[in-house]
């Protein structure tokens, strides 16, 4: 019996296009792609300045409001009183408040005290004194009215700051080592590369329509302090045996609901070619990234399909026109990458890493911090990817005085384990996607654990990360925490819904106590309500301290023990 091959082919369903521009053409396949092609997101600034700031919130076009505004760092906040999860059932106009979250873009986390003071004054004058240091090294404000945005931009840009592409389907802020150019043990200073990328490419209309957000991180410090494994593009300082200091290239990391760690491409990138390589990888994402489905539009999905070898070949052949040099992998870190505490700079002065509780500060505090630093001769500081601050250029004789003054501001340079290692996303207070409250929950948890675990404080490890997220999207990196908490609504004893969390255990990124990154494990059915959270974490920590083997980290212990050791049971305290 013969088979008609052409007839079989005709019956076989055609593979749906992924919306890859260089494969499928540029015809939009969803509404997001339609509005991005209809008008570049960068163009909305003129309408904000000439129309919306003058005519008010109700004059804003919906595609600008919920789309292009992000290209300038603006998201609408959750309207007060909107219940958890309502964004899935209510129309967006019933979820949106008439105020905005505004992200100040801080590439490399580098700030002067003048810039810090201006951000603080903007917070005080236009944002109800709100300010959060994010785990992307930005500072985020809330309660911003569209009428005030042009004046905010004027003040920021007068001191060299801005909000260009702080959100949106764009190259987001470039993470940089908080001790770039400062640390005595630095392999290479990434500051020139970060500045060159920002100058050449941020705000470039040719790169302002990517499939989705695009995150970059660059460090030359041996502690690998920029969470490179969860960025789309990352450069990590290495020393090549022939070419000297440079960078190792990683691509395709990201968390959200489909976590994937970045992979090495096996290439050595010299300082002078780093910006060009960034541009090549970014163009590859623009031209080959998947655009049909938003939940498959990050670079990690393209890398998963291609693999690192093909990805490298494409950037070399189609975008660089040359073969990159093979290079070594970075060595495991031998110092902590959060930079908390007092450390010596290479010029003999000191830098001090401090811990605003889960990144929450205020405009008033930022102004006071700028004043404090200037009184002691410092005019520079850095934000970090861990919701921390690092103040620079403190004379050794002033260290203790400055540390005491910082602690009085709530910026502890010698924090407890949990104050040092806890981060939290924005949460339901402002975020439309969040299901539970995070910042206040985290702060209360830290306070309670400091008190309850005081009797075992000397037995605690230097670091034990607790990450609290308000929804499944993992802005607070729950899969890479020792204890990661994903917000959700849980049934209470009366069958009603109450805020709670799914528990992830034993994740982590490369750190001084961990040679390589790994994702946390989930235990079937392991969920805790917000009310149970402190009891559970206390119980878990005590079990770890009692049951760990010599030198065993919490992550190692939590992956080794049986599920029963990780389940919640009533805490029995002596």
From TrEMBL:
Coiled coil: none annotated. It catalyses: hydrogen sulfide + 6 oxidized [2Fe-2S]-[ferredoxin] + 3 H2O = sulfite + 6 reduced [2Fe-2S]-[ferredoxin] + 7 H(+). Its cofactor is [4Fe-4S] cluster. Its EC number is 1.8.7.1. Catalyzes the reduction of sulfite to sulfide, a step in the biosynthesis of sulfur-containing amino acids and cofactors. Belongs to the nitrite and sulfite reductase 4Fe-4S domain family. This is assimilatory sulfite reductase (ferredoxin). The lineage of its organism: Bacteria, Bacillati, Actinomycetota, Actinomycetes, Micrococcales. The gene is sirA.
């Amino acid at each position: 019996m013969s088979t008609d091959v052409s007839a079989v082919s005709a019956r076989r369903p055609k593979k749906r296009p992924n919306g890859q521009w260089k494969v499928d053409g540029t015809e939009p396949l969803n509404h997001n792609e339609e509005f991005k092609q209809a008008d570049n997101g960068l163009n909305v600034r003129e309408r904000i300045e000439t129309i919306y700031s003058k005519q008010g919130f109700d004059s804003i076009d919906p595609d600008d409001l919920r789309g292009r505004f992000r290209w300038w760092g603006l998201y609408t906040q959750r309207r007060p009183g909107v219940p958890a999860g309502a964004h899935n059932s209510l129309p967006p106009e019933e979820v949106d408040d008439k105020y905005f979250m505004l992200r100040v873009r801080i590439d490399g986390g580098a700030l002067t005290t003048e810039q810090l003071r201006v951000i603080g004054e903007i917070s005080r004058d236009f944002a109800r004194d709100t300010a959060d240091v994010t785990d992307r090294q930005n500072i985020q404000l809330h309660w911003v009215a569209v009428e005030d945005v042009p004046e905010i931009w004027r003040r920021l840009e007068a001191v060299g700051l801005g909000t260009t592409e702080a959100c949106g389907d764009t190259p987001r802020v470039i993470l940089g080592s908080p001790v770039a150019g400062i640390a005595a043990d630095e392999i290479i200073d990434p500051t020139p590369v970060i500045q060159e990328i920002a100058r050449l490419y941020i705000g470039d209309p040719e790169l302002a329509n990517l499939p989705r957000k695009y995150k970059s991180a660059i460090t030359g410090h041996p502690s690998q302090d920029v969470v490179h494994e969860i960025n789309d593009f990352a450069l990590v300082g290495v020393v090549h045996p022939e070419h000297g200091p440079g960078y190792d290239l990683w691509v395709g990391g990201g968390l959200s609901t489909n976590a994937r760690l970045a992979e090495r491409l096996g290439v050595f990138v010299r300082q002078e070619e780093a910006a060009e390589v960034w541009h090549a990888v970014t163009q590859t994402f623009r031209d080959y990234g998947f655009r049909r489905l938003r939940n498959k539009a990050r670079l990690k999905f393209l890398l998963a399909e291609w693999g690192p070898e093909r990805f490298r070949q494409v950037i070399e052949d189609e975008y660089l026109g040359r073969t990159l040099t093979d290079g070594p992998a970075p060595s495991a870190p031998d110092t902590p990458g959060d930079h908390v505490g007092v450390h010596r700079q290479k010029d003999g002065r000191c830098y001090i890493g401090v811990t605003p509780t889960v990144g929450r500060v205020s405009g008033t505090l930022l102004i006071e911090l700028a004043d404090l630093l200037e009184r002691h001769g410092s005019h520079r500081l850095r934000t970090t990817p861990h919701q921390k601050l690092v103040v620079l250029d403190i004379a050794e004789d002033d260290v203790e005085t400055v540390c005491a003054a910082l602690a009085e501001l709530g910026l502890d340079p010698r924090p407890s384990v949990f104050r040092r290692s806890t981060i939290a996303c924005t949460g339901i207070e402002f975020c439309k996607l969040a299901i539970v409250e995070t910042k206040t929950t985290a702060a209360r948890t830290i306070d309670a654990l400091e008190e309850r675990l005081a009797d075992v404080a000397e037995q605690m490890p230097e670091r034990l990360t607790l990450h609290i997220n308000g929804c499944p999207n993992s802005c607070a990196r729950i899969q890479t925490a020792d204890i990661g908490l994903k917000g959700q609504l849980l049934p209470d004893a009366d069958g009603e819904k109450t805020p709670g969390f799914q528990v992830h255990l034993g994740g982590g990124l490369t750190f001084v106590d961990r040679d390589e990154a790994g994702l946390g494990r989930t235990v079937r059915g392991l969920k805790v309500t917000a009310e149970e959270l402190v009891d559970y974490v206390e119980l878990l920590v005590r079990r770890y301290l009692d049951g760990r083997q010599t030198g065993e980290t919490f992550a190692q212990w939590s992956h080794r023990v049986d599920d029963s050791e990780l389940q919640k049971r009533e805490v029995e305290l002596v």
